């Protein structure tokens, strides 16, 4: 299952509206097939692994990070049916699929065909792996990551607007890696006019994973997808993971609307003093409301900068 999860990770930010799934086929102690959901959602992980395994799939165990789909789509057959036809002997799944078209049907159909089914193996890790897909299902919108790069005293720029560069090259490279794991990236009009950012991925080998560019603005902009309000992220098609990168007004608007699920906080070991704060009014009325909202899930040094990752408590 660990290998299946690692394969699923290859598709993060690439498979919407489908979940990023990993699959490993094992027969007689040997891996005979591997697969992960491809860009755009097809082919599915199971289909890719079965194609690689061929006849060796008969009698194999399929380790999958999500219940195999049970519904027929114009884009391809149901993976449950493919596993049954291939003669797989056992399915080990991390979790069930909340899609109502499958939701237990894959497991029951496989069981009726004589396939042994085991579920709940490393489920928490699998849920984190497809958090964007699950957020879309539960909340009707993408999973939203807010990225902030600040000085020790919480500034994102000097008072005159100078902001390049607060963090060092390692932190900036990590930001590009994070961009590659989101289908879309969003900024506000002020950041567009001040910085004209490219918002692409400039890491060797990952340039093709540059996210779609979204502008928070009521005025259309050539070369950009625009939305009029934070709530409109629910209407962005084929985006399950959205990264918000700037600026302070936009970040504050998303926080005030309670639309942030994950925080990437990069802090440089510098003091700016009087400058431009990372955040404005986020709608907090009492200090007590600020506590208990976030939990730290990762912390590391990136050169001289510190990265802290927080998720909704």
TrEMBL record:
Zn(2+) binds at residues 44, 69, 79. GO terms for biological process: riboflavin biosynthetic process. In the C-terminal section; belongs to the HTP reductase family. Its EC number is 1.1.1.193, 3.5.4.26. It comes from the Bacteria. GO terms for molecular function: 5-amino-6-(5-phosphoribosylamino)uracil reductase activity; diaminohydroxyphosphoribosylaminopyrimidine deaminase activity; metal ion binding. Residues 1-108 form the CMP/dCMP-type deaminase domain. Pfam families: dCMP_cyt_deam_1 (PF00383), RibD_C (PF01872). Its cofactor is Zn(2+). The active site is at residue 46. NCBIfam families: eubact_ribD. Keywords: Hydrolase, Metal-binding, Multifunctional enzyme, NADP, Oxidoreductase, Riboflavin biosynthesis, Zinc. Pathway: Cofactor biosynthesis; riboflavin biosynthesis; 5-amino-6-(D-ribitylamino)uracil from GTP: step 2/4; Cofactor biosynthesis; riboflavin biosynthesis; 5-amino-6-(D-ribitylamino)uracil from GTP: step 3/4. Converts 2,5-diamino-6-(ribosylamino)-4(3h)-pyrimidinone 5'-phosphate into 5-amino-6-(ribosylamino)-2,4(1h,3h)-pyrimidinedione 5'-phosphate. Substrate binds at residues 163, 179, 202, 245. This is Riboflavin biosynthesis protein RibD. Binds 1 zinc ion. Gene3D superfamilies: Cytidine Deaminase, domain 2 (3.40.140.10), Dihydrofolate Reductase, subunit A (3.40.430.10). NADP(+) binds at residues 149, 165, 191, 195, 199, 247-253. It comes from Sphingomonas sanguinis. InterPro entries: CMP_dCMP_dom, Cytidine_deaminase-like, DHFR-like_dom_sf, Eubact_RibD, RibDG_C, Riboflavin_Biosynth_HTPR. The keyword Aminoacyl-tRNA synthetase does not apply.
